[in-house]
């Protein structure tokens, strides 16, 4: 892992906009984030919209045979993915509060989103 | 500028593949360098050798192959996304005991590391998705 100046842009922002079940978007987005981190890039995750549902604690793979993403989220720290952001507006429609989530995430207001985007050199949206 | 495209929409199901193809041609027409198309998520279906669309519709698989041959654009397909969706080259088909391969040349199976590499060394990485 390399050091980053506070003012220099981080390498990659992965935006996750889909819930953990019903499609493979979230899992394939997380895969991209993990690979980037394994390649030594500085990676941030931003959960937006239904993507915030990924952070609901206590999720099981479920009867449909999909693997789920909770186990992957628990590995993020091991990959040095420590900047976890959630869009403020995403929480209340899902009945969630930041304190309820399975990981410690920073809540970002809608007004601050453009700053998050411009603080990263590359943005991938899933 | 040096560009790369990330394509995540299935062909014919959504507009993403058609838009990405037009954007790719516009880039090279403007004199930009298009390094690669990276096919991920349902976008891997663009590499299906056995695709046989009706004759009055654009043949996307052939169109990507032509783009690659004419302009030296690499066609990189995420191997994990491809195998799940039934797209195997000869080597993977043999490895998994399948008869016949389903990945068209010059598409090539590769890993997500290639996507990260493209993002690092190109000036722009543009995503097309559903």
Question: If helices are DSSP runs of H or I spanning 4 or more residues, what is the number of helices of chain A?
Answer: 4
Number of domains of chain B: 1
User: Could you tell me the mean pLDDT of chain A?
Assistant: 92
CATH H level, superfamily name of chain B: DsrEFH-like
- Let me know the CATH homologous superfamily of chain A: DsrEFH-like
The low-pLDDT segments of chain A are none
Rg value of chain B: 14 Å
Q: Determine and state the CATH class of chain A.
A: Alpha Beta
Ends of chain A: how far apart?
25 Å
Overall description:
The complex is a heterodimer of chains A (126) and B (130). Chain A has 126 residues and is an alpha/beta fold. Chain A is built from four helices and five strands. Chain A has a five-stranded parallel β-sheet with strand order 4-3-2-1-5. Chain A starts with 9 loop residues before the first strand and ends with a strand. The relative contact order of chain A is 0.25. Chain B has 130 residues and is an alpha/beta fold. Chain B is built from five helices and five strands. Chain B is globular, with a radius of gyration of 14 Å. The mean pLDDT of chain B is 98. Chains A and B meet through helix 1 and strand 5 of A and helix 5 of B.
Considering the chains and any ligands shown, give keywords for the structure.
heterodimer; A: 126 residues; alpha/beta; Hypothetical Protein Ychn, Chain: A; 5-stranded parallel beta sheet; 4 helices; 5 strands; 23% helix; B: 130 residues; 21% strand; sulfur carrier activity (chain B); sulfurtransferase activity (chain B)
Write a short abstract of this structure.
The complex is a heterodimer of chains A (126) and B (130). Chain A has four helices and five strands, in the order βαβαβαβαβ. Chain A is an alpha/beta fold.
